[in-house]
Amino acid sequence: MASAIGTVQILEEHMSNKNGHSTQGGVGSFKVKTGLAQMLKGGVIMDVVTPEQAIIAERAGAVAVMALERVPADIRAQGGVARMSDPGLIKEIIQSVTIPVMAKARIGHFVEAQILEAIGVDYIDESEVLTPADEEHHIYKHPFKVPFVCGCRNLGEALRRIGEGAAMIRTKGEAGTGDVVEAVRHARTVLGEIRRLQLMPDEELMSYAKTIGAPYALVKETKDLGRLPVVNFAAGGIATPADAALMMQIGVDGVFVGSGIFKSADPAPRAKAIVEATTHYNNPEILARVSENLGEPMVGINVSSLPESEQLAVRGW
Amino acid sequence: MKIGVLALQGAFIEHIKILRDLGVEAVEVRLPEDLEGLDGLIIPGGESTTIGKLATMYHFMEPLREFAARKAMWGTCAGMIFMAKEIGDGRSNHGQPLLAIMDILVDRNAFGRQVDSFEVDLDVPVINNGAVAPFPAVFIRAPRLVAVKGDTQVIARLADGTAVAAQEGKWLVTSFHPELTGDDRFHKYFLKLAA
Predict the structure, then answer these.
(1) A285 interfaces chain B, CB cutoff of 8 Å
(2) Is B191 helix (H, G, I), strand (E, B) or coil?
(3) A81-123 tens-digit pLDDT
(4) Which pTM does this prediction carry?
């Protein structure tokens, strides 16, 4: 980990000098940003829309909550422009729990990110679940003291986001559907590309970096490490303890559960069961026990029935 | 020498990697029976509420107390909170379970939120064998030691005097994360306590 983060820091210093920000060492360094994500590993991050839900999530053992006005399933159902949540609501959620609180900003909307940083959010999700504010550029994340997590569908996208300063990566999956198929596709794509990268001789890396549109230095680091240089969670469609354990066995570091908990019939036991399944992902006896009698999961949408115009994962560049 | 790392949640793989690089057998501990045959246990950084709840659910509390009575134990960040006899941050802890092993009072999230997390070089005489190389300490939503009691000794302080690491016999606690640095001196020191 240390060597990988070293390279990212070089990129960061180079770029932050140009920008007049000092993010080396001390507060807001890349190490403390990626470090928080390392502390979240093996854990479950849950979407919540009220302080009461945040407390239920914390009591169930969530490592963090994502504070939102609407979960992705409702954003999908209601349509319209989805924006950053009301800072007042996010502050109420921050006051209600001791675990870290994340919040979403629109892709490219750096002013929403500035507002979220100002109110003390612990992590910003630059998220395709909200309506993008910029169809060409993501937020330049290095100058912020607050760390960012970004979605990806493949290795090139993951490394572009890390190059911009993301301190944590997640698969996009297809949020608000309760269908895990896209999270599996994206995790398998990223992890498979890393496995193939490890077999490439160094002289092929520059051309590969060009092909996938990723910074060369990060391609090289990823090859040397055999994993992404930052923590990598699964997100988008996880609805059951078995879904969470599936993603962990495929090889991610932890899971986000969006609509899957508070759109189910009985959220508290389901939240607790998904936490247990994420820790004991390799133990089928425990997975069987925690999967019993959880009531109805969220009503799902089959992703293959969604027209491309309604797919959120295609947002991001 | 065989060292376990509590693997309920958090940065356990980082500890295991450093231990293995030091030539030590290191294993993930997910159930109480995994404690069998270990010479020492590390409780890693993570979310202390999550680790405490999972430890309670999986009947770890008494086995961990019995283990600590005989063996070395080291808590980093969340692990330090979990090992404390008392925590106080002026807010509801929603019934957070504590092992209550070490005679320390710990303040959770004592330095603020994530935007206040920081790195600093620390002088830690016990790990240095007389040399004076500072230890690169990474503080992430870190706790601090408000008070140490009985035989507990503070072994590292910030420049302003805030206590951030302590030792009581074979027990060690650090507010910061030696597992996130390339510096293995704290791990070597813990192995001496476990030997």
Answers:
(1) no
(2) helix
(3) 999 999 999 999 999 999 999 999 999 999 999 999 999 999 9
(4) 0.93
Contact by Cβ (8 Å): A67, A48: yes
Torsion of CA B17, B18, B24, B29, to 10 degrees: -50
Q: Of A123, A247, A256, A267, nearest to A191 (Cα)?
A: A247
- Residue A15 falls in which region: left (phi positive, over 0), alpha (psi -120 to 50) or beta: alpha
d(CA A308, CA B14): 40
Average pLDDT of the residues of chain A: 91
List the structure tokens of A246. Answer: 């599936």
Q: Examine the residue annotation and report whether A104 is marked as an active-site residue of this protein.
A: yes
Count CA atoms within 13 Å of residue B56 on its CB side: 15
**Is the distance from CB of A298 to CB of A178 less than 8 angstroms?**
yes
> Is A114 within 8 Å of A105 (Cβ atoms)?
no
Copy the structure tokens of residue B110. Answer: 């004592």
Yes or no, beta carbons of A40 and B46 under 8 Å apart: yes
Cβ distance A123 to B47 less than 8 Å, yes or no, reads no
How far is A87 from A65, CA to CA, in rounded Å? 15
Confidence category of residue A18, pLDDT binned at 50, 70, 90: very low
The ipTM assigned to this model is 0.94
What pLDDT digit, counting tens, does each position of B39-66 carry? 999 999 999 999 999 999 999 999 999 9
Q: In this structure, which amino acid lies at residue B36?
A: E
